[in-house]
Amino acid sequence: MGLAVNGKVVASGAPETYPLRLPLSPAARLSFIKSGLKLRWAAQGFQRAARRQIGESASAARARELAYRENETFADYLGVMHPEVEAIFRAIAERITAEPHEITAGCGAGLFAVVWDSNLTLARNLIGGSALLPLTLARHLGSRIVTGAAVEEVVPEPTGARIRVRVAGRVRDVSAKYVIAATPAYVTHRIVRGLPADTADALARIPYGPFVCGAVLTGESGPMPWDDVYAIATPGKAFNMLFNHANVLRGSGPREPGGSLMVYGGGDLGRRLLQMTDGQIQEAFLRDLSTILPEVKDVVREVIVHRWEHAIPYIAPGRHRLQPALERSLGNVLLAGDYLGFPEMEVAAVTGLEAARTARGGLAPVEGAQSRVLERVQP
Ligand SMILES: Cc1cc2nc3c(=O)[nH]c(=O)nc-3n(C[C@H](O)[C@H](O)[C@H](O)COP(=O)(O)OP(=O)(O)OC[C@H]3O[C@@H](n4cnc5c(N)ncnc54)[C@H](O)[C@@H]3O)c2cc1C
Fold it and tell me: What pTM does this model have?
């Protein structure tokens, strides 16, 4: 991950060298080195906490991750910083849609650990876009999948559950032996009836922050200066982060024409952006994008603005105490989703797989596509 500060982009080399290579005042440089060392220490601790021991369940590792440095906020842990350095850390914390004083020190450390440690999860990309995974699963499941179906309630029953679902404006009741509730925590809280009080309370207390994203299609005919860059944190701009998602395609084979950039603003910046019209957001994004990557001006073909009011759950102090209520058995209703651990796709996928295994374990052997797909996705 690179950094764009005071008109300069540094996006290669060891992160430890960034304080020396960015155009900062001596006081800001010193402050950055101090905070950087503290962060390096905390990120290493997070990496140790996240590592699964042999024979340990994924849920035990999740609980340990959530409890890591949970008794102070990220802002308190970093302490007083030079304003320029504070802006850098704020931009990066807003990647999880919250401010440094809203997340635990462990959560802040995790944001860096997943970038710095190639064994942790964020350092992976699905070439073609992450939507390929659910699309492929859906293709294998065929007509068993119903999309555009809004679940209105899930009512546990002695041998399963009844689901009330609205499809194409019509309400239907469906009976199931198992339900995997893979909706965001606040939706699961709203639709699943009869939850134990502590589980319902825990679901209601998972905080989510906003993101406002801009996807930028570019039409260049050859290599661009950002081809080698994947992500840049952009403090003080209309967005916190800039991504070059096509980066994974560069460097192998011929450089295809065109590309795709993405920017987003989260946390307080996201809340400010939510007050603006799409046109105003687009203008602000493009203006700041061209101050960081000047060549972009001539190649933008299309911009799409997308608003996520509840984009990602974040880990606030005290979050780990909710974990037992979220991981407990709820009979035939199984919970899955990113809010069950350090929030990212891996946790969503792993908890989904765990729930699927539990459900399959309780079902009579099933012939056909469903069981075959589960076999295929097992690691
Ligand atoms: C802009 C952005 C960038 C991100 N970047 C990364 C990244 O680089 N790496 C990473 O690991 N993670 C990233 N994330 C986070 C990642 O997308 C989430 O952690 C992940 O998608 C969570 O998966 P999930 O299945 O738990 O929830 P979701 O993906 O939110 O899925 C929940 C589903 O429930 C559906 N639903 C809601 N209500 C109902 C209802 N009543 N009935 C039926 N269905 C319902 C929704 O439509 C949705 O499809 C990013 C998120 C955003 C918004």
Answer: 0.92
